[in-house]
Write a structure and sequence with these properties.
The protein is mainly alpha-helical. Strands 1-2 form a two-stranded antiparallel ribbon. β1 and β2 form a beta hairpin. The protein is globular. The chain is built from 13 helices and 2 strands, in the order αααααββαααααααα.
Length: 313
């Protein structure tokens, strides 16, 4: 019954299946966008940035808070970017520079500490209540687009369509940045070997500021898009951590892996929840991504597109 009934429902109502896949696709590209923030930091420093999730929340709260203080919407966006740049400089000066060449676990613990600092500071400045994203003020369209399909109608929210387009553009831009620019090549060099990068004149401090600021831009865009689809609150940090299974699935250093992993997780959990949820107890969206990640850790820990690392002893 569990194996057959969902597929029968898909076959009898293909328009609804398309609707479910579309909603999963939107979630997937947003997961991929969050994952790219993690990939940026990992490529430049070789450490997992546990703070990326709270950076999404902090950037969105900064934008909304500035607007509530009377700052025009697009000026607030510019000022929020300035805040993320200041954060990048602060992280490089206070956290990363003193910890150069320390073990990766030390840097990971530092990013966990940074997470708690941003949570506490965010709650102090913005409070703990959910806030409404300024979607209309930023020109993000509302309403729906109804598409006739298989004698039924597929409903596409314009806000979801906008989010998908923005995420795809950001992903393409970051892929170009990594593969075609001098800074992107410098980022990869720094990640491979800090000392070798320094020996050929690459400034570790500048690279880290650039990459953390780029991750901050990704966090702000992600916060705007997720916040436009729901409220802006610290609960978004939990959603942002869905990028962890995406990274495990696609590979921690792979931009294409982040894209493919995000789509697999987004579409997979949506289909699982809608078609299998009521048959096996529901709540599939909350654990399916982590179950997939566990399977990959057991059988392909480097992910779909990650490089297998062989160490000689």
């Amino acid at each position: 019954m569990v194996l057959v009934e969902p597929f029968a429902r898909m076959a009898t109502n293909p328009a609804f299946l398309v609707q479910v896949i579309w909603e999963g696709f939107v979630s997937g590209v947003l997961y991929a966008l969050i994952a790219l923030g993690f990939v940026l930091i990992f490529k430049a420093s070789g450490v997992f940035n546990f703070a990326q999730g709270i950076m999404v929340v902090f950037a969105a709260l900064t934008l909304v808070g500035l607007h509530e203080a009377g700052v025009p919407a697009w000026v607030a966006v510019a000022l929020a970017l300035v805040v993320m740049y200041v954060l990048a400089v602060g992280v490089e000066r206070i956290v990363l520079r003193p910890l150069v060449n320390q073990p990766d676990i030390i840097l990971l613990m530092a990013t966990i500490g940074l997470t708690r600092v941003l949570v506490g500071f965010g709650e102090l400045v913005f409070g703990g209540e959910p806030k409404v994203m300024i979607a209309n003020e930023l020109g993000i369209p509302s309403g729906v687009w109804r598409i006739p399909l298989f004698d039924r109608v597929v409903v596409i929210k314009l806000i979801d369509l906008t989010a998908a387009i923005v995420a795809i553009v950001m992903v393409a831009g970051l892929a170009f940045f990594f593969s075609r620019t001098r800074i992107g090549r410098a980022l990869r060099a720094v990640a491979d070997d800090h000392q070798a990068a320094l020996s050929v004149g690459i400034s570790l401090e500048q690279i880290w500021v650039i990459v953390w600021f780029a991750a901050g831009i990704v966090a702000l865009v992600t916060g705007i898009m997720w916040g436009a689809r729901s409220d802006v609150s610290f609960a978004l940090e939990i959603i942002a951590l869905k990028a962890l299974p995406v990274l495990i699935l696609g590979g921690f250093t792979s931009v294409p892996g982040a894209i493919v992993g995000g789509l697999i997780i987004g579409i997979g959990e949506k289909i699982g929840e809608i078609y299998w949820g009521r048959l096996i107890g529901g709540g599939i969206e909350s654990w399916l991504a982590y179950m997939i990640a566990l399977l990959f850790l057991l059988f392909r820990p480097q992910g779909l597109f990650g490089e297998k690392i062989i160490e000689r002893v």
